[in-house]
Amino acid sequence: HKPMATLELFVHQDRRTMPSRFLFVFCRKEMEACEAYERRHQKVVEDAHRNHEKAVQFLKKSMSRIRQKEAKEELKTQKHMEKRMQAVLSLKNNITSNRETLRTLQVRDKAKALEAKKQEMKMTGAILAEGGDVTKEIFLHKQRVELERQKQEFTEQQKSRKIEIVARILQEEAYVEKQKKHQARAEALRSQGKLQDSLQWRIKTWQYIENACEDPKSWRTPSACSLVDDKSSSVVDFSEKALQDTSYENDDEEANETLAEPEFTGLWSQEYETDPKPLGASKMEKKIFTENLEKLRSGIIRKQVVSGHEFKGCPFYSKPSLIHFKDFDVGKTYKKKIILINASYSVNFCKLVGVSEHLKDFINIQFDPPGQMSAGMSCEVVVTFKPMINEFLEGKVTFLAQNGSFSIPLKCTTKRCVLALDKELIDFGTHVVGETISRTIILTNRGALGTRFKLQTSAEFSALAVKEKHLFTCNQYEMSIFLSHFFEHSHSVTEGEVGPFSSIKLQIIFTPSVPGDVHAEFEIAFDNPNCKPLHFAVIGVSVDVPVWVPNPNVDLKICMYDRLYQDCIIIRTKAALRLKFEVCKELSNHMELLPKTGYIQAQSSFSVQLKFLPRHSLPEDAGKYFDRETRVLEVPMTIMIADKTKPVEFIVHAIVTTSDLEISPAEVNFGYCTIYEAVQTTITLTNKSILPQEFGFVGLPEFVEIQPSDGFGILLPLESLNLDIIFKASKAKEYSFELTCKSEINRQFKLSCKAVGVHPPLELSHSLVKFAATALNDVSTATLYVINAHVSLNCFTHAVPRIGKGEIAPVGPTSFEFLVPEDSPVTIMPSVGTVLPGKKCLIQVYFRPVLSEQLIREEAVQMLCRADAKRTMLKKIHESEMQVRTVKNQYTHSQKKINLISTALTYLYSLIRNFTGTFERYIIPCFVASGDIDEKKGSENLKYSPYNTLYLELHCPAVAPSVVVTSNNGKNIVNFGEVAVGHRVIKRITIQNISQEQLALGFSILNPNGPFLLVSPVGTLEPGENQFLFISFCPNESKLFFETLDIRSIKATLTLSIIGQGVAPSIACSVEGEVLDMGYVIAKEKVTSTFKIQNTSTLPLRYSIKLESLSQTRDKEQQRLPFFITSPPGWTDFVGTQNYSGLSVFNIFPVEGVIEPGKSQDFTVTFSPDHASLYYSDCLKVVLFGKEIAREIWLKGAARNHMMFVEGGDPLDVPLESLAITSPMSEEAAKGELEEPAKSLLLSLEYIQGETSGTPAVRELKIGAIRTAQFASKKPDHPLMVAAVLTLKGDIKESYKVLFIARAVCT
Predict the structure, then answer these.
(1) What is the DSSP secondary-structure string of 524-535?
(2) Which among 315, 580, 994, 1205 is least buried, having the fewest CB atoms inside 10 angstroms?
(3) What secondary structure, in 3-state letters, does 894-925 show?
(4) What PANTHER family would the database entry show (predicted)?
(5) CA torsion sign, 704 to 708 to 714 to 719?
(6) 875/869 Cα distance (integer angstroms)
């Protein structure tokens, strides 16, 4: 660095004057400060890079959420639009069907009217032929017909009403009988003034019916709703109504006012009143009884709560929401069907309460309660309307649901006239005196009732004309009004009739005779008193000047500054004149009319060219004609006519806007950029105009690129657009340039840019690596090189590494380091290295996509929550049915771990199967420093510049695997663990095809000399099929083994990592030597001995203990000659004397088992002979894993018939017993057992005489006593063992018979 060079120069210059120690300390501090600065700078760069990556991740998540939200909003909007379109289509179909119905009705009415007219004409001709009065006869005929019709209708109504009254009487009788059975207070009812005989009530009822039939106006028709309400009401209601009816029958005036009351009294007393309080009760009981009765009458309403949410609102929706009977006729019957839909959260009920009180005589409800209705289900209700009066009716139908009551509004509207005009103002415009112009106005009746109309002048307008009579005298004109029917044009009348659902055209003709403004108001009056008069106004302008502008308002739309706009203005005239065109002084610099003077011929037109060039000074020059807020310009233009004082004016309208484009920011600094990368920055281009503008960046340098659309596009009014400017330095230097943006009107806008080009000492062979689609847990590899092409400092022959115009990088070893982000699926090998000048270093990049731990945790939490919910539900079901047995509980507890493992496998498989693929983009920085990284001392770091950093971009697409491992918790690692050398272990691996296609599988080749072997490869896998792979491991030495097995398919490769370690088994035995001597024991007794075996290896040892006497080959070996005949001297057989009983002499426990690493096992050997012998022996073998003999132990023992024994001397027999069968001992022999001769011992004493003196010959005899439990109670009188030694001196060779007599007692 430059500071270091300056420091070294300073030290050399002042070396004479400065002590060397001070210089050394000063240099060291400076170097430490520089290194600390470099470390801080590197840490800042790393922190910035990490923060940038985090910001990018958060931005991606935010953008994905925004896109999802926008997609949902778009889908919601589309659904809403579809619903609206369907509603419009259904409305259109309804309108079409209604029109067809109306046309049919109109044709039918016309046909009837025509037929009636023909009959009337025939009758008129007949009367005239007879010489009678036509008018009188026709009137009398109409009266007779009307009277006959009324009589017939009255007779039919009388019959139907009699039937209804009789039916109601029968219903009441049945109801009374029912009440008498269920009520305990029938006597109290009769005691309060009721008639005793029901026959008298019948007579009175029939008298009432006769009176009612004689006077049809004094009664009304009962409705079904009133019947329903009468049934459900209490006895008190019937009594009160009966009392009212009786009183109203005596008064004729009051009878006319009680039409809403029942026609007859019923069968109950007028004075009867029920007492809701029970007899003989206290006040508290009466109060409780009253409250309960009110609850019973009003209906019990319960709240509906589902999943913690209380339903609030109307429990049922009605379709339609309003019951509307339109345009009804009195006497006819109308029906409407409505649908009730359950809108609550769960099952609900619906009960009809009734209709409004004033509608009960006209409305009948047919409703069968459906019972329980699930949410969303519907039922039908039929409403029948039979009008008796021609009046507007309004009310409601009330229902009761489980969680509250609700009602449906009901309206009944009579026929009426709905009249309207298509316009309220007729503007004839400007016309010359003497012309005739006509306009049409349409009168439409949208109602079902026709009426007559009359057209007349408005009263207000007439009064105003009278007051200001001089106005009309000076503005004389003629206005004729012609009314013509829609179909008939021959009649000219000022009044007529408009039928139902029809329209009439009214034609107005304007013929001005005097110049001036004309205004008139007219009124259309109707015979129907309910129809308000309609008004419309007529205006017109008549001019005597023969010059006018057909379009007095010239609209130039939206205009930009400094742009020329032209328009053509047409001028018409009746006579030949000279015209002069003038513009106001304020806009003379911006607007012009050409030509300024012109001559126009009679009955012709003249064109004037308008030119408008707005300049930026327009707001100041225009003054009052320009609005700065709305930017609207209104300029009056004048046409001067020769010999005329009054000019003709017209107005020019325009909206003036700017054409500026704003670039933000105005200056861009790209910073340091290497020649191997591109730097991108974003600018904002804003359209300040209210018109769309096209733009484009032109004349771009070779090292600059603008996206999107290469810097071209269209900006909508006041729109802002983000553009990406990409800069790629071509060489190391300082850049300063401008970018030019042109608009469609050729305006230019500049953008200043700066940058510094950097040429790093190293370069990458590939800056972009695109991996192929890689399955999860698969590996993709890419290869690239780090190249050091810097071999010369000559900057004139080739480009040299430098930062801008700085110093040239030194030639020599250059180190690099790739900084891979943590938790990324990318690995770079090697990540650190040094490249010599003119050399290159091979770099391998590995991409291994795996499921992130966070994703696995989230899936695990979701699945565990669902499993807990399911388990809770199942537990509740089991508890409700029966108690779980204890055995089942223990089994469930033992299976807990297995369930957890299966749950883990389930969510892991779920993630893999539902994996839709991802695409990640990583940018890996590569830091470059001059020097060899291997030569650095200790913690010393190489000095580097962050501007020389190289960047490697990786595109990493990940897809779902086609083949997965379902065993071993889904892991791709097959770990055999520790296996004994020479032993073979086989493991089974389950693979599954999770794709939708059949896969042909291939396998890589394992090491043929290695310990691993693929036993059963699989050829094909069907979709969803599971197959087993068997891999064996047989180590031949004690070490760690590792291999990989690739399972290849067309889509992806699944790699299995196989690991195993060979271990040599070793044990340690507590038996010293190879012999375990059990000693002496009395025959038919037993003795035990214990020894220990310890596992000194690192793997569990499976052992088994075998005895040679129990081997399968023992029978064959016994058929051979004895070993003392065939074998050389000194060799002995391990298996000696055996028991006569056939049982084994030696028993070992335990026989088999497993010894864990570092643990030991105790073994117990039991010696149990059944006869006396000195040659009991056997061979114990410790066998590991059923194959290897790890240790052999020779078991020996001797048995005696007596406690005392002598040991020593030369053998006098062979160590094998006779194969002959020994006969059992007789009683005489047993008696003479004590007298058997003493046993002989052979002692061979060999003495060797030396030159001086010889060494005595010595032999030792041992006398012993066997410890036994037979004499445990006796006390010993003599010592237990005596040793006798025979010493022989001299040249003597003789044999001596030594007899020992002793008695011993065990203690």
Answers:
(1) EEESSTTSPPEE
(2) 580
(3) HCHHHHHHHHHHHHHHHHHHCCCCEEEEEEEE
(4) CILIA- AND FLAGELLA-ASSOCIATED PROTEIN 74 (PTHR22538)
(5) negative
(6) 10
Q: Strand locations in 645-747, DSSP E? A: 648-657, 661-664, 667-674, 679-687, 693-698, 704-707, 712-715, 720-727, 734-743
Give the pTM.
Answer: 0.44
- Nearest-CA neighbor of 1089 among 1162, 1171, 1039? 1162
Give yes or no for residue 507 having a pLDDT over 80: yes
Asked if residues 762 and 742 have their Cβ atoms less than 8 Å apart, the reply is no
Q: Which string of DSSP letters, residue by residue, matches 309-375?
A: EE--S-SEEEESSSEEEEEE-TT--EEEEEEEEE-SSS-B-EEEEEE-GGGTTTEEEE------B-T
Q: Report the pLDDT value the prediction gives residue 221, as an integer from 0 to 100.
A: 36
Where residue 114 falls (left for φ over 0; alpha for ψ -120 to 50; beta otherwise) is: alpha
For residue 975, pLDDT beyond 80: yes
| Cα distance from N-terminal residue to C-terminal residue, the chain | 102
Q: Are 1011 and 1034 in contact (CB under 8 A)?
A: yes
Residues 339-364 as b/e (b if ≥16 CB within 10 A, e otherwise) read ebebbbbbebbbebbbbbeebbbbbb
- Strands of 763-764's sheet in order across: 763-764, 780-787, 840-847, 826-829
Reading the block at residue 1034, the tokens are 């047989």
Neighbours of 397 (CB within 10 A): 24
List phi, psi (to 5°) of 434.
Answer: 105, -15
What tokens does 815 get?
């180190």
Residues in the chain: 1307
**Cβ–Cβ < 8 Å for 579, 647:** no
User: Is the C-alpha dihedral spanning 68, 74, 78, 79 positive or negative?
Assistant: positive
Q: Strands 840-847 and 950-959: what pairing?
A: unpaired
Half-sphere exposure of 871 (CA within 13 A, CB side): 9
- DSSP lists the bridge partners of residue 1047 as 1003, 1054
Q: What is the rounded CA–CA span in Å between residue 800 and residue 211?
A: 129
C-beta of residue 371 within 8 angstroms of C-beta of residue 349: yes
Closest to 499 measured CA to CA, from 443, 435, 458, 547: 443
Q: Other C-beta atoms within 10 Å of 424: how many?
A: 11
The answer to whether 1243 and 1210 have CB atoms below 8 angstroms apart is yes
Determine the pLDDT at residue 1110.
81
Task: Give the residues across from 657 on adjacent strands.
Answer: 560
DSSP-derived letter for residue 628 is T
CA atoms of 1106 and 682, how far apart (whole Å): 86
Which one, of 1216, 999, 1177, lies nearest residue 1076 by Cα? Answer: 1177
| Rg of the chain over all Cα atoms, to the nearest angstrom | 62
Query: pLDDT (tens digit, 9 = 90+) per residue, 140-197?
Result: 888 888 888 888 888 988 888 888 888 888 888 888 887 777 665 555 545 444 444 5
Beta-carbon contacts of 89 under 8 Å, excluding residues fewer than 6 positions away, are none
Three-state SS at 1293: coil
Which residue type is seen at 58?
A: F
Note the helical H segments in 131-197: 134-182, 186-191
CB 1090 within 8 A of CB 1163: yes
The answer to whether the CB of 1041 falls within 8 A of the CB of 1012 is: yes
Q: What is the pLDDT of residue 716?
A: 92
The Cα–Cα gap between 520 and 835 comes to: 103
Report pLDDT digits (tens) over 548-597. Answer: 788 888 899 999 998 899 999 888 877 778 888 888 888 888 999 888 88
- Are the C-beta atoms of 747 and 661 separated by less than 8 Å? yes
Which structure tokens are listed for 736? 């300063």
Torsions phi, psi of 468, nearest 5? -115, 60
Residues whose CB is less than 8 angstroms from the CB of residue 825 and which lie 6 or more positions away in sequence, other chains included: 847, 848, 849, 850, 920, 956, 958
Under 8 Å between Cβ of 195 and 203? no
